Amino acid sequence: MSMLLFLPWCRIDNIYKIGNIEILPFERHNPIEGLDDAAQCRVNAIMASYKTIEGRPVDNAALIRYSNRSPIDNLSEDEIETAYELASLACFCGLVKREFFNPGGTYCNSDCFNLYTQKFDRADFITFMTRRREGQTMDGGWRFEEIAITILQHCHGIQNISLDKELLDTLVAHRTVSNEWIRWQNAISCFNQANTDSYNVRHQVEWVLLCSAFEHLLVAKPEAKDVASKFAYTMKTEDSLLASNATRRSDKWRDNGRSLRYEWMREFYRIRGDFAHGKLKTQQPTVWHPLEHLVLATIAFPLVVKCLLKNANVYDLTIDDQAQIDAFEKFADTNNLLKPPSNQKSSLDSHWRRLCNKSKSKRAHKEA
Predict the structure, then answer these.
(1) Are strands 50-51 and 149-150 parallel, antiparallel or unpaired?
(2) Backbone angles phi, psi at 25, to 5 degrees
(3) DSSP code for 343
(4) Taking the CB of residue 219, how many other CB atoms lie within 10 A of it?
(5) Residue 5 forms beta bridges with which residues?
(6) Does residue 121 register a pLDDT over 80?
């Protein structure tokens, strides 16, 4: 019995080694290293069942193999579980690489990294296992050419997925030595699940998942003040913006010595309680709109990961990392931060891009 692990919606741009597995590009018309003609035909037949929105077989995708082994080797349950865990790190490092507010920039979502496992032999028939709440069911007797599994609409337009390789290598190494990796794994998994881009995942669910990600990663109590304090302490900026000096502020903020990033996280985590306890709408007063909150949280979480790795002396912040950290509070303080600037100069111009570029220029000037 042979087995194929693949990500049909992941048009990966290169081979990435992740611990003892590799993610490699699949191109329909190119041979796969280590496979003879018969095996190549079987793999092509399986992949042909996965279609574009036009109904054509996907031409580009990603395969997973263990290093120095064939992509169709039969794997144990433990090996499959390890592959799923390492693929989630690849997913996270793809999400980290995204360029926000740039329609033509690098982008992906976590559904691009949906991992499928297909066992097969020389027979021409296929069997599917489908989850049920109480277990699973089996549906078999289908020929490969009869199957059409269509790409998710929100993955369709995503091309050339790239991973943050330096961060990926650091996380893989950290995974093998950290005695707190389970906590990191939980946090990264929550972040990934909150970034599907699927309309079927409501923003309340994303909100709770993102708050859980911060709580796990920061080893915080399930309290807004504690999560906010540890967040503000971990993600230090070059010039902290006091909440008392912010343009966007609330009359309910009592401690004028707190930073704006503290007050943002305190509000974000505080509202989580409403959504986690079954409310679809919060009645609490807010400074930021829901989508603004989710964008800020999505930008901040990878930066916290990098700061913690830097504090552990296993990662060096890049110029872009430092610029984003320095720009975060100013971005949070921007009115209508998700809309283009009123004097937008091009389609690539955004408040976030301007602030990051300004931060980079300031650091470069200071170093010079």
Answers:
(1) parallel
(2) -65, 140
(3) T
(4) 12
(5) 64, 117
(6) no
The H or E element that residue 149 is part of is strand 149-150
Cα dist from 192 to 98, 183, 214, 217, 346, whole Å: 13, 14, 12, 14, 31
Token output for 240: 């902290």
List the one residue out of 300, 45, 19, 56 whose CA is nearest residue 176: 19
Residue in this structure with the two tokens 């699949």, named with its chain if needed: 26
Looking from the CA of 254 toward its CB, the CA atoms found within 13 Å total 1
pTM of the full structure: 0.94
* Separation in Å, CA 179 to CA 102, 175, 182, 307, 330: 38, 8, 8, 18, 36
Assign 122 a pLDDT band (cuts: 50, 70, 90).
low
- Cβ-contact 177, 309 below 8 angstroms: no
Q: Domain coordinates of the chain in residue numbers?
A: 2-156, 198-367
Q: Which residues pair with 159 in a beta bridge?
A: none
22-55 as b/e, with b when 16 or more CB fall inside 10 Å?
bbbbbeeeeebeebeeebeebbbbbbbbbbeeee
